[in-house]
Amino acid sequence: MLFTQAQGRAVMDLATAETVGTVSACTVAPSPARIAGLRLSTRGRGHHTLDWNNVQSFGPDAVAVEEAGRIRNEKSIDPSDHAHAAHDPIGKAVLTETGLNKGTVLDVEFDERSGRVGHLLTDEEQIPGDQLIGVGSYAVVVTAPQ
User: Fold this and answer.
1) Beta bridge partners of 100
2) pTM, two decimal places
3) Distance separating alpha carbons of residues 36 and 52, to the nearest angstrom
4) Cβ count near 9 (within 10 Å)
5) In which region does residue 17 sit, left (phi positive, over 0), alpha (psi from -120 to 50) or beta (all else)?
6) Is residue 50 within 8 Å of residue 42, measured between CB atoms?
């Protein structure tokens, strides 16, 4: 699935069957490349994140979380935590470990069951997820071509 297809998807609290937000962005962690968190648009102020390990299911109509208490306020997330907003790859430059510019991340292809990143899609190419080294506040770093 492409992340852009998941944007706007409802997030449902299984305990109350209420919609607690919608998916607005994702954060990514390397080794292995995977979705670390879903950034949510919620009622009220501030930004919130649902850690991927708290996603019960990722269906065609909604993302299910066991209970809304699992959703964290982004202000409480340390920047070194891969669920932090700084690890959102969309719109960031892609650089190899040797400094070669490989474009800008436009989308992330991922498995909605496991969260595994299949590819980073740039304006120039598809980069396999297993080449991901890290996502920072400025750029996404991938391994250099052999």
Assistant:
1) none
2) 0.91
3) 5
4) 19
5) left
6) no
In contact, 22 and 41? CB cutoff 8 Å:
yes
Q: Tokens representing 46? A: 């501030």
Closest CA to 14 of 96, 87, 99, 71: 71
Q: Rounded to an integer, what distance in angstroms lies between the CA atom of residue 106 and that of residue 94?
A: 10
Rounded Cα gap, residues 56 and 105, in angstroms: 27
Locate tokens 């992340």: which residue?
3
- Please report which helix (H) or strand (E) contains residue 78, including its range: none
Sign, Cα dihedral of 59, 60, 65, 71: positive
Query: What tens digit of pLDDT does each residue of 24-61 get?
Result: 999 999 999 999 999 999 887 678 999 999 999 998 89
Q: How far apart are the first and last CA of the chain?
A: 28
